[in-house]
Amino acid sequence: MRILVFGAGSLGTLVGGLLASVHDVTLVARDPHAARVSAAGLDVVGAESAHVSPAATTTETGHSADLALVTVKSFDTAAAADALADCDVDAVLSLQNGLTEETLVSRLDAPVLAGTATYGARLVEPGRVECTGVGRVVLGALDGGPDALAERVGKAFRAAGLNTLVATDMPRRRWEKLAVNAGINAVTALSRVENGALAGDDAGELAHRAARETARVARLERVSLPNRVAREAVDRVVEKTAANRSSMLQDVAAEKRTEVDAINGAVVDIAAEHGFEVPTNRTLAALLRAWERGAGLR
Ligand SMILES: NC(=O)C1=CN([C@@H]2O[C@H](COP(=O)(O)OP(=O)(O)OC[C@H]3O[C@@H](n4cnc5c(N)ncnc54)[C@H](O)[C@@H]3O)[C@@H](O)[C@H]2O)C=CC1
Ligand SMILES: CC(C)(CO)C(=O)C(=O)O
């Protein structure tokens, strides 16, 4: 399969690097990473290891591929979609956190699959990516149900050794992941604690409240996600990733823009479309956006 990875930073470089052992992969990245991969190949280290030689470029348009993987941060999704609109790609798959697929659908003609990834990835230096945890890629039709394209993509991922599930219930999975991220990411980023600190703490109750609101909005969107399931998903992730610093905490610690718009912000916006108020998500989003403005990031 000819696969274009649009936005090869940490996750895109890891997934693209693993796919490159079997497939014809092009990484669209920034220099010096792109130049280094072109000149000397890519080292995958950590929980997975490989030396591979995908193509790498900073050129964003004019590519042709069977599949474009979108792995930019959520706030770069619209720009990525506009660049992909000037490429010839047969299908698009997002592995980002937050609700980003809708932005891709609104700007692209190619079919868009929904995806989530729980692999951990860190770009250590140009040309070198660390797999910090073997997780799973879950992908499928955006609206749910069986899908031949998703099956083909899943088969291609598995052929490259990626732990991959093709799911027929992506709407529920996306919203459950959103509920987990809406609760854990914002609260850990604002209180500067590891995920495990939420267990049995008042801050954990705040995370539950954000997740329950998210589940309510999911149901307004006709996605079946009971409050109890969202709350239990938060507890499960807090327990399994107790030592993790959430991606949003890492962004705040590094003084980088966060993905709050596509997580808590998306919950607020979609709730508003239904005339529904989500005060916890609204508060969390307002605080993070205020911090971003204060840090000159937006
Ligand atoms: N890193 C991880 O372990 C995981 C990340 N994710 C999600 O995956 C997404 C990406 O996350 P990371 O890889 O950590 O972020 P990252 O910031 O390391 O990678 C994004 C990359 O896209 C590049 N980029 C943006 N616009 C571009 C353009 N126009 N042309 C070329 N390159 C461009 C940036 O330079 C950056 O290197 C996020 O939504 C994140 O939440 C999900 C699961 C795990
Ligand atoms: C699941 C969780 C909360 C793990 O830290 C995550 O997805 C993130 O940090 O973005």
UniProtKB/TrEMBL annotation:
Domain of life: Archaea
GO BP term (any one): coenzyme A biosynthetic process
SUPFAM superfamilies recorded: 6-phosphogluconate dehydrogenase C-terminal domain-like (SSF48179), NAD(P)-binding Rossmann-fold domains (SSF51735)
Ketopantoate reductase N-terminal domain mapped to chain residues: 3-143
Gene Ontology CC terms, in alphabetical order: cytoplasm
Keyword NADP among record annotations: yes
Domain Ketopantoate reductase C-terminal span(s) in chain numbering: 171-290
Keywords: Coenzyme A biosynthesis, NADP, Oxidoreductase
Protein's pathway: Cofactor biosynthesis; coenzyme A biosynthesis
Record field: catalytic activity: (R)-pantoate + NAD(+) = 2-dehydropantoate + NADH + H(+); (R)-pantoate + NADP(+) = 2-dehydropantoate + NADPH + H(+)
Enzyme Commission number: 1.1.1.169
Keyword Transit peptide: no
GO molecular function: 2-dehydropantoate 2-reductase activity; NADP binding
Family: Belongs to the ketopantoate reductase family.
NCBIfam families given in the database record: apbA_panE
Function: Catalyzes the NADPH-dependent reduction of ketopantoate into pantoic acid. Catalyzes the NAD(P)H-dependent reduction of ketopantoate into pantoic acid.
Protein's name according to its UniProt entry: 2-dehydropantoate 2-reductase
